[in-house]
Each structure stands twice: as C-alpha cells, then as structure tokens.
Write a structure and sequence with these properties.
Elements: H1 6-13, E1 20-22, E2 26-27, H2 42-55, E3 58-59, E4 62-63, E5 69-73, H3 78-88, E6 94-97, H4 105-118, E7 122-126, H5 140-149
Parallel strand pairs: 5-6, 5-7
Antiparallel strand pairs: 1-2, 3-4
Helix pairs in contact: 2-3
Length: about 150
C-alpha cells in the first residue's frame, strides 16, 4: 500500500489531458451507464447524445467530438425507433437490431472485433437488460460480474 501526496500527483499530472467524447462529460474508452425508471426518457436522451456525437455538434451545451456511433437496439421495433428519431434528429449512425446478447465473453469479443473493423468508436446498448438474456436486472452480483466482463 502506497500513500501519495496529492500535491505531488498534481505536479506530475497537471498537463494530463483527457480524451473526451463529450467535453467535460464523457471520456473516451469509458463505460457509462444511464439508469432510471421506465418511461422517463433514457432512450430519447441517448438518441440525442448519439446524434450529437455522430454529427460533432453540441449536447446540452457541451461540444461532442465527432465519432462513429453504433446503436444496438434490443428494445424497440424498427418503426418505433425511427419515430423516436424524428424528435432527436436523424444522424447517419449505424443500428444493429435485435441481434445482440451479452451472454458470454465470446459475444463481447466478437462485438469489439466487429466494431473495430467497422470503425465504431461509441456504442450505445438499448437496453442493457434486454441484451442479457440470463440475468435479472435486480441481481447485483450477476450484474456486477457482467459489467466486469465488459
């Protein structure tokens, strides 16, 4: 166990720059989870975020750095997804419909390989729970183990 002085750390890393996807908000190569009760607008806000990232525009006043986005849609029928984008804006990001489950590490590795080959830099999974066929969203141990795998 090593205790470090914050002043020393500051001096060492004061010029360290974070690679942001959304300035001051979302860092590249990070896992971010948006959770709330059903019907409060998680999908709508994420679609707006995906639009802003794909376009390199602003999201709630924060600059988004243009990245290629993949939207994994495991929740909505195609027509409903398209209807939702009418309010958020239609950006040319890619969509994978109902073909993805996080059942094992091989699925995750295959997604990572395919995403890298296609040049996707940001992936939205809607919904995470719908992508996990064998887990209960309220099982903290199971969900924790799954998130470690990702």
């Amino acid at each position: 166990m090593k205790f470090e002085n914050l002043t020393d750390l500051y001096e060492e890393y004061k010029d360290y720059e974070l690679d942001y996807v959304i300035d001051k908000t979302i860092v590249a190569k990070s896992l971010n989870l948006i959770a709330a009760d059903g019907g409060v607008g998680k999908t709508t806000i994420c679609l707006q975020m995906a639009y802003s990232i794909q376009k390199g525009s602003f999201f709630f006043g924060f600059l988004c750095h243009k990245k290629n986005v993949l939207w994994i849609n495991n929740e909505m029928e195609r027509g409903f997804l398209v209807h939702r984008t009418k309010s958020t804006g239609i950006a040319p990001f890619s969509v994978l419909n109902f073909d993805f489950t996080i059942d094992d590490e091989d699925c995750i590795r295959q997604l990572a390989k395919n995403a890298q080959n296609e040049g996707f830099e940001v992936i939205f999974i809607d919904s995470l729970v719908a992508s996990i066929s064998h887990l209960d969203e309220n099982d903290n141990v199971g969900m924790g183990m799954m998130l470690k795998t990702i």
